[in-house]
Amino acid sequence: MHNRTIPMRPSPYPSLNPPPASAGMTGVWQAFKRAAVSQCHPAMLFAVLLPFLIALVGAMLLLWFCWTPLTDWLRDEASRWSVVNNVDEWLVTVGLFSLKVYLVPVVAAAILLPVSGILGLAIAAIFVMPLVLRHVGQREYAAVGKQGKFGTAVSVWNALWVSLAFALGWLLTLPLWLVPPMAVLLSVFWWAFAFSRMMRIDAIVEHASPEERRILLRRNNVGFWVVGLICSLINLLPPAWVFLPVFSALVFAHYGLDALQRLRQEKVIEMARFPNVS
């Protein structure tokens, strides 16, 4: 006799068919697709102005107050580096250009512009994300109740430590930019870190309980990093700086709330399977 494998039939009751543990790459694509639709809403188009204007004003203030002291300090430091002096002398000798003339402004811009960018992202995380959550929550995730605690405090603390870690990491790895293609790779990595670490907390802090938050971050860590990586790649295009803080908030909101919805569906299923287990 031959053993026959009887295929398992799905339960006729939808509530007893468990959803997948995480959405995977399909969930990432779905989050970006939903965010593109949400971004076209007038309220979200208006929300683009806040982080952009703050980042723009921050960049102007940094350039006004910090450009001259920073470039003077960099020029003094560069004059002490024998490698820079030797390369500069060789370039001038062969009739090309002075390395110091171009190196100092480029390094100064590489320091100041990311500072204004992370400021805009932090503003989006703290002040714009609640608007984003209210917008998408009422329309697409109305069934996902709010069970978060100390949301504002958690959001502010998360924005502070991520901004500080980003700034320190960016400055400490800046010398590696001289080694091709580390300039692009490091920029992508640090912005992926900033997007994923900052936005993923704010996307779920209002709705998820502390226990749910820990489960979601552990289960969907790769997905959040993929979303951050894609946002970081988009960030390489300067025109994207205008809308990316709000658009990234929309993507993380859709991805995080969808993951939370899946998690709570699993809890309902477990309760239905084991009704007597407290």
State Rg.
24 Å
Oligomer: single chain
Number of strands: 0
Low-confidence stretches: 5-18
Shape call:
elongated
Distance between the termini: 45 Å
What's the helix count? 10
The ordered H/E elements are HHHHHHHHHH
Structural class: mainly alpha
For the report, how would you describe the main beta sheet? none
Keywords: Membrane, Transmembrane, Transmembrane helix
Pfam families: EI24 (PF07264)
Membrane topology: Multi-pass membrane protein
InterPro entries: CysZ/EI24
Element layout with pairings:
Blueprint: H1 24-39, H2 42-47, H3 49-79, H4 82-93, H5 99-140, H6 151-172, H7 182-204, H8 210-219, H9 221-234, H10 244-273
Helix pairs in contact: 1-9, 1-10, 3-5, 5-6, 5-7, 5-10, 6-7, 7-9, 7-10, 9-10
Question: What does this 3D model show about the protein?
Answer:
The chain is mainly alpha-helical and 278 residues long. It folds into 2 domains: 40-140, no CATH class; 144-265, no CATH class. It has 10 helices and no strands. The two termini are 45 Å apart. Mean pLDDT is 82; it is low at 5-18.
